[in-house]
Amino acid sequence: MSAPDSGAFTLSIVAPAFNEMETLREFHRRLAAVLDAIPAVCEVVYVNDGSSDATIAIMNALRAEDSRVAIVDLSRNFGKEIAMTAGLDHARGDAIIVIDTDLQDPPELIPQLIEEWRNGYDVVYAKRTVREGESALKKTTAALFYRIIQRVSRVRIPEDTGDFRLLSRRAVDALVQLREQHRFMKGLFSWIGFPQKAVLYRRDPRFAGAGKFNYWRLWNFALEGITSFTITPLKVATYVGVVVALFSFLAAALIVYKTLAFGDPVPGYPSLMVVILFLGGLQLLFIGVMGEYLGRLFNESKRRPLYFLNAYEPAKTPGADQSAAKR
Ligand code: UDP
Ligand code: MG
Known about the structure:
- By secondary structure, the chain is of the alpha/beta class.
- It is about 45% helix and about 15% strand.
- It has 2 domains: about 10-210 and about 305-325, Spore Coat Polysaccharide Biosynthesis Protein SpsA, Chain A (Alpha-Beta Complex), CATH 3.90.550.10; about 230-300.
- It has 10 helices and 8 strands.
- It has an 8-stranded mixed beta sheet, sandwiched between helices.
- Helix 2 links the parallel strand 2 and strand 3 (about 70-75).
- Bound molecules: uridine-5'-diphosphate and magnesium ion.
- The site of magnesium ion (MG) has 5 residues, from loops.
- Magnesium ion binds near residues 100, 102, 104 and 206.
């Protein structure tokens, strides 16, 4: 059992924020209201992901007002996946919840997540029923992405699920051992295994400000997901090569037969161009696919640390440091 059967436990909230000065106060107000009602020692680990606005000032103000607030201040913007990891590295709770600070993930769902953790689940993820304030194009591309990644990789990544979830201590301990540079967190959450459970909720539109994920980023995100969880695209080249080779044998046989039977009429310039362009395109495509993997290999092989900190300010909550702190 990962969850204590009864009694007090420590709860960590990990909330990455990048230029969220408009939403942070409202987020904390709603989160604090939820935490007040939970019989646990709580800490809220805010991760400032190199914001260029007043986000860090607001975090400091919140920490002065609320003893549960801890701050992990990254040395620059590292992206949400790494910001989350930095938060998880510093979270000390028996149960850890990862949540967005833009209020798209309702903090009011937290008691339900804890409920399922108490039932013995290590990873309790919030699954959205409706996506509000998101375009039809984003919805269809997201659906397509999940369908593809489900097909090509062995890891089951739940659909309509963001990063909003609860992790048990042992799940976080497992997760923080994965130090790869290319962190597709949704995949890593599933990869670690352990009993997992979904809780349904309505996803709200952003409270204020703009989402930082445009389509280019989304495309790169999809690429990251696929390349870090499967080498299927590399294998595709082999099979396409086999099929093309087979066809070329057939075509060669046909040409030999036609030349012998009917002599050699005007050589086929158009068909020649088609074949050259087709094969040239195919080769470039697969060199590109190999490049995607090679580039990632290059990044991983440098074995750089994932992030650097400006500062880490732990929560002042009494009791928070007596918990399962190891890191
Ligand atoms: N975020 C971050 N670093 C980044 C981009 C985003 O920490 O480089 C945080 C952001 O502050 C928010 C969460 O990640 O709390 C989700 O970001 P966003 O709303 O832009 O993404 P979306 O909801 O569109 O997936
Ligand atoms: Mg958002």
